[in-house]
């Protein structure tokens, strides 16, 4: 595929890919964002709505990013977003939920900085550019590209703290890009899917995550429930909790506060199977909402958007139940 005449918008948001060691102190600090290498004939425009390490990125930043992408999309054949890896998967999923455009949007970053001999930033950036400019990428929603693998925003997750191939997620990549010289070879293993859009004008809700563990008796639950409009619990296994949590969840649901049950395991759906107190079946009977296959931090973003749109408890239950994301 020839790239000549195509238009690429690159949005830099910070992260390791745009960091250097600080000569005056410990650690990495943000520096100039990298240019896209090796795209003859492509018109590239650069944008930087903010420059942050990814632990500093909030849903409000994600909403700003979504609005920028919507403005750029009509005049771009593809859009690349560079991002720190710690919360890249959350930004990708937020954009998956909030963007209406069919213009390809690719997110990438790097695990190593520019002064390391094995810096992975330029290769990931070039891969992302090629995928973003390929016609087969249209209509797929935002994708993540890392180390040549392409991931769906709904299932991608960071699986290693320091390895170059840090991203994965069950059931695995949905595509692969390999380059030989100036030629890119792109293959998708899945077809594009229709997806609803959840795009509030502002984020007007608060959602907190609680993490289940052996022996948890509900410590922290009531405080979180009092602060938040909705809760997500990273539960055990297929969606189970200690017995002490059952009345707490029932009280929240009875008051109209959504409580979404995700899993703390690496992958898999929430299945309300067990009927003991705190088992998944009893939690659902008490009003809890299964998160389907979403992990806790992605379930939080979906719940945040639904609440910000003014959805009530039963509407939220319907969205999660139907897997409409």
Automatic annotation (TrEMBL):
Keywords annotated in UniProt: Hydrolase
UniProt-annotated catalytic positions: 16, 85
Residues annotated as domain L-asparaginase N-terminal: 7-178
Superkingdom of origin: Bacteria
Region of interest: Disordered: 13-42
SUPFAM superfamilies xrefs: Glutaminase/Asparaginase (SSF53774)
Record's keyword annotation contains Hydrolase: yes
Residue span, Asparaginase/glutaminase C-terminal domain: 206-320
Pfam families: Asparaginase, Asparaginase_C
Similarity comment text for this entry: Belongs to the asparaginase 1 family.
Name of the protein in its database record: Asparaginase
Naturally occurring in which organism (per UniProt): Deinococcus rhizophilus
């Amino acid at each position: 595929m020839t790239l000549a005449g195509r238009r690429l918008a690159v949005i830099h948001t910070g992260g390791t890919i745009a960091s250097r060691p600080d000569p005056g102190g410990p650690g990495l600090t943000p520096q100039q964002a990298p240019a896209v290498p090796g795209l003859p004939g492509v018109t590239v425009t650069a944008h930087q709505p903010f420059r942050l390490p990814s632990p500093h990125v909030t849903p409000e930043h994600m909403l700003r990013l979504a609005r920028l992408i919507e403005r750029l999309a009509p005049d771009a054949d593809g859009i690349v977003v560079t991002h720190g890896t710690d919360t890249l998967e959350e930004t990708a999923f937020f954009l998956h939920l909030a963007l209406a455009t069919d213009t390809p949007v690719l997110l990438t970053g790097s695990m190593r900085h520019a002064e390391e001999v094995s810096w992975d930033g330029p290769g990931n950036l070039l891969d992302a550019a090629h995928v973003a400019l390929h016609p087969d990428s249209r209509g797929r929603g935002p994708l993540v590209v890392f180390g040549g693998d392409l991931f769906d925003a709904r299932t991608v997750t960071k699986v290693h703290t320091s390895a170059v191939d840090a991203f994965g997620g069950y059931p695995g990549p949905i595509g692969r890009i390999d380059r030989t010289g100036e030629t890119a070879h792109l293959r998708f293993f899945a077809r594009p899917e229709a997806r609803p859009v959840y795009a509030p004008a502002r984020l007007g809700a608060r959602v907190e995550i609680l993490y289940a563990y052996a022996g948890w008796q509900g410590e922290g639950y009531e405080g979180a429930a009092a602060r938040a409009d909705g809760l997500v619990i990273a539960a055990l296994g297929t969606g189970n909790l200690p017995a002490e949590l059952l009345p707490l969840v029932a009280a929240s649901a009875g008051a109209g506060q959504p409580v979404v049950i995700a899993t703390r395991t690496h992958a898999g759906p929430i299945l309300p199977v067990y009927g003991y107190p705190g088992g998944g079946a009893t939690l659902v009977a008490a009003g809890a909402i299964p998160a389907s296959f979403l992990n806790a931090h992605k379930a939080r973003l979906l719940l945040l958007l639904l609440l910000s749109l003014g959805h009530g408890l039963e509407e939220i239950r319907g969205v999660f139940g139907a897997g409409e994301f």
